[in-house]
Design goal:
By secondary structure, this protein is an alpha/beta fold. It has 4 domains: 2-143, PAS domain (Beta-Lactamase), CATH 3.30.450; 156-230, Orthogonal Bundle (Helix Hairpins), CATH 1.10.287; 239-402, Heat Shock Protein 90, CATH 3.30.565.10; 423-537, Rossmann fold, CATH 3.40.50.2300. 45% of the residues lie in helices and 21% in strands. The protein contains 18 helices and 17 strands. A 5-stranded antiparallel sheet has the order 2-1-5-4-3, sandwiched between helices. The chain has a 5-stranded mixed sheet with strand order 7-9-10-12-11. A 5-stranded parallel sheet has the order 14-13-15-16-17, sandwiched between helices. Strand 11 and strand 12 (389-396) form a beta hairpin. It starts with 15 loop residues before the first helix and ends with a helix.
Length: 538
């Protein structure tokens, strides 16, 4: 087909010899072919001589590239290439490949007259006369920018889905491991409390080692809480949060944390809703991001904390697995070293860090990611090497229907003599946890009944109607703790219910019976007794 394109040359090439071989009939046929080619607007069809000089131009070429025939014929076709491609010798390689292999076919960026770029599908073939002499090259170009963008969008969606599925899988595994560790820490912590209480005071070395063990236990508990945060299983106490007031209140702490070489800017908008979130987790997230930003700016820079209102449309909501609507946005941006694409893709994975060993756990961003998702929002990361990093936390706006039952962490309560003897039922399927807790409570004079499942618990409640407290794990086998509480309260409405759990699910907290309380594992005996006293007084 390309050989038939020869007579559409326009300009000043010397084709006299060739034209003498054409009969009147062939000239008429070639005129028809020229009209056909010039009327094609979906393809740029043109020819260049052996040196790359444009010698013909159709309507499609003018449409794609912006040049009229009178502007481009006689010019070198390299002007359609980007400057870096010209420096790399791509135009010459295109013609050389077409000449040696009989055809050049590829996709790449090309440049329009106005300087704009488009993604082109290009085919180049050599054109020879009847004697086999090279006369030039025929080029067919198609603008496939929209197709490429659609393909890229599809690939990005697939990658986002893969990342989401990977994080979900890691989250489930992480939550399960953290839950098991919490149970172990509960047993270890309560056992240390029992041992410490029974030690005579004249063994200071032993008491010191016990204190060291308890300190290590607290550290281990903090790590499991971070893992639970990533897994979206941490206990939260959501409330209406004024992000502007929170950011202003933290400004001095952030300044002290990042040092004098870092300039702190607050870019806060008045037009923002109250976020529905745990304020302590938001504060922890801001401080963690500020410290990360400081480390990314070893020579100083600017740290900006900003708030905005964001409308999340249906497409964005589906992509981030949240509800469509208005969100409060809080971002922390730095002017530091930024992240490579590879690092950015893994930034929220637990334990992933680029810091040296001993300089970070790799749980900061993963914890914030999990907190955002558990709160009904999401997290975005924007970073390039050499251009800094921006982390944005998007949280749902507070509405009256957003309120959920409070979930309380075990406070570090001061030991206090109980005001009375409590009669309670302890329901826990982990035997070691149940035995140690029961022994510790009984040592302080309380009456403790034990059950490993809901059926046994209901039988005990029937036999002992004087029981004041039902203390139950949430994740019981079979009938779970929440269901047990509903059954028990239906029969004994005066019963006070306290849940113990190693991790919590957003759906579980939203369905807890009203008036019930919760503590998270690991919890101390003192914290448990403080909660019972509070419930008894209420």
């Amino acid at each position: 087909m390309m050989a038939r394109l020869l007579p559409i040359f326009r300009g000043k090439p010397d084709l006299t010899g060739t034209m003498q071989h054409l009969t009147a009939d062939s000239l008429a046929g070639e005129r028809h072919l020229r009209v056909l080619i010039e009327s094609v607007h979906d393809y740029a069809i043109y020819m260049v001589d052996p040196n790359g000089i444009v010698v013909s131009w159709n309507g499609g070429a003018q449409r794609f590239k912006g040049y009229r025939a009178s502007e481009i014929i006689g010019q070198h076709f390299s002007r359609f290439f980007r400057a870096e491609d010209v420096r790399d010798g791509l135009p010459a390689r295109v013609l050389a490949t077409a000449l040696t292999e009989g055809r050049f076919e590829a996709e790449g960026w090309r440049v329009r007259k106005d300087g704009g770029h488009f993604w082109a599908s290009v085919v180049v073939e050599p054109v020879r006369d009847d004697d086999g002499t090279l006369i030039g090259f025929a080029k067919v170009t198609r603008d496939i920018t929209e197709r490429r963008q659609a393909q890229q969008a599809l690939e990005e969606a697939r990658e986002a889905l893969f990342q989401a599925q990977k994080l979900e899988t890691v989250g489930r595994l992480t939550g399960s491991v953290a839950h098991d560790f919490n149970n172990l820490l509960q047993v270890i912590g309560n056992s240390l409390e029992l041992v410490s209480a029974r030690l005579p005071p004249d063994l200071p070395d032993v008491q010191r080692h016990m204190a060291t063990a308890r300190s290590a236990l607290e550290t281990a508990g903090a790590v499991t809480q971070r893992l639970l945060a990533f897994a979206r299983r941490q206990p939260l106490q959501p409330e209406a949060v004024d992000l502007n007031a929170l950011a202003r209140g933290m400004a001095d702490l952030v300044r002290r944390s990042v040092g004098e070489d870092v300039l702190l800017r607050l870019d806060l908008t008045d037009d923002i809703c109250s976020a529905w979130a745990d304020p302590h987790q938001v504060e922890s997230g801001i401080l963690n991001l500020a410290v990360n930003a400081r480390d990314a700016m070893p020579n100083g820079g600017t740290l900006t904390i900003a708030t905005r209102m964001r409308h999340i449309d249906r497409a964005a909501a589906a992509a981030n697995e949240v509800e469509e609507g208005e969100y409060a946005s809080l971002s922390v941006a730095d002017t530091g070293i930024g992240m490579s694409a590879e690092v950015l893709a893994r930034a929220v994975e637990p334990f992933f860090t680029t810091k040296p060993v001993g300089h970070g756990t790799g749980l900061g961003l993963s914890q914030l990611y999990g907190f955002a998702r558990q709160s009904g929002g999401f997290l975005t990361l924007d970073s390039r090497e050499g251009y800094g990093t921006k982390v944005t936390l998007l949280l749902p706006c507070h509405t009256e229907s957003a309120a959920e039952p409070a979930v309380e962490k075990g406070p570090a309560a001061e030991p206090e003599a109980p005001s009375s003897i409590y009669r309670l039922l302890l329901v826990e399927d982990e035997v070691l946890i149940r035995l140690v807790l029961a022994e510790a409570l009984e040592e302080q004079g309380h009456v403790v009944h034990q059950a490993g499942n809901a059926d046994a618990a209901l039988d005990i409640l029937s036999d002992h109607p004087d029981i004041q407290f039902l203390v139950t794990d949430v994740g019981l086998p079979g009938t779970n703790g929440r269901q047990l509480a509903e059954l028990a309260l239906g029969r004994w409405p005066g019963l006070k219910v306290l849940f113990l759990t190693g991790y919590i699910d957003r759906a579980d907290t939203s369905r807890l019976p009203p008036g019930t309380q919760m503590l998270t594992k690991p919890t101390s005996i003192d914290a448990l007794l403080a909660k019972l006293r509070q419930m008894a007084a209420g």
